[in-house]
Amino acid sequence: MTTSTGGTTKVPAVLVLEDGRIFRGRAYGAVGETFGEAVFSTGMTGYQETLTDPSYHRQVVVMTAPHVGNTGVNDEDMESRKIWVSGYVVRDPARVPSSWRSRRTLDEELAAQGVVGISGIDTRALTRHLRERGAMRVGIFSGAAVRDDAALLARVQQAPQMKGANLSAEVATAEPYVVPAIGEKKFTVAAVDLGIKGMTPHRMAERGIEVHVLPATASVEDVYAVDPDGVFFSNGPGDPATADHPVSVVQAVLERGTPLFGICFGNQILGRALGFGTYKLKYGHRGINQPVQDRTTGKVEVTAHNHGFAVDAPLEEVSDTPYGRAEVSHVCLNDNVVEGLQLLDKPAFSVQYHPEAAAGPHDAAYLFDRFVKLMEGQRA
Ligand SMILES: NC(=O)CC[C@H](N)C(=O)O
Q1: What is the CATH number of domain 168-379?
Q2: Cα–Cα distances in angstroms (integers) from residue 312 to residues 6, 105, 242, 308, in the given order
Q3: What's the 47 CA to ligand 1 centre distance in angstroms?
Q4: Which of 89, 93, 130, 202 has CA atoms 20 to 30 A from the CA of 62?
Q5: Which of 235, 281, 283, 332 to mutate to test ligand 1, by most ligand atoms within 8 A of the CB atom?
Q6: 12-156 in CATH: which number?
Q7: Does the keyword ATP-binding apply (predicted)?
Q8: Cα-atom radius of gyration of the chain, to the nearest Å?
Q9: pTM listed for this prediction
Q10: Any catalytic annotation for residue 264?
């Protein structure tokens, strides 16, 4: 058990939303200033996985769980090499974390990685505001950065928007690497890293897949150079409307008929490759408790989400696309947002949520088995 100073700091901090609403609290993590898109996560647990998910790049995450940091920070639950959120907002930080795996406190970790946060504000009021007005730009300022509100607001209003942001290359690996199969190797998959979470190749490796993780800029030739049985497109930050390069790679893979699986950003990119549009949701889905229906089996699964955009595809009819018939395979039961796509004439499918379950329920693990079945089918 480590003793924390979290929450006991008296350094003043202020959170300024682009529409002028202001919350005053105390510094949490690093002292300084930061900007991003304010979004809220409804996960009661799993903050370490949230913080290190590259899809949160340039977002300030508000935790709706009122008490955060209870289990400290360990060395096992990182989803990537660093914390990606651009800011962190909590109501009441844990003062004394308690877990046999804890190595550091959360506020120490945030400070060590230079992540500016704020605590002691009414996160319920902030969440309700974002739910009513929509996700918007925000700044957090602490210590010497706390100045006159009007000047801070002007700077928030000049910060970049999430709409139109092309961010995968900022978070993805620069060099290819291999995650070996666990046990007997059965398949090779080329995984295009648009901001991949570490658990995703692990879930494939557990199923006998050797995963070649490739940079976001990988060409069709790079993908086929690894002689893949299947091609995977990962989650990632930013606006899918900007991801023209991966869309063209997906189209080439569909053309060849290689089994294809996509998660989150990967689902939006498959959607675009099929000719569907994408749009920005008012405040998105983030958390580990979202109900999704698999329309093939009728079963409802509780799932982990982190998306601010969605695919615009018809729910009730099969669509004709340049790659054959496609349909919406999964739908969110809270709001009928498209949560999955599948092709009927090609071995390709994707989901908008996170079957790798980090953090989150394991209900959707069967999707990795579906990918394996597609690759087996292609070999038979
Ligand atoms: N987790 C993801 O892949 C997110 C995809 C996309 N950046 C969105 O917000 O919708």
Answers
A1: 3.40.50.880
A2: 43, 42, 16, 13
A3: 17
A4: 202
A5: 235
A6: 3.50.30.20
A7: yes
A8: 21
A9: 0.96
A10: yes
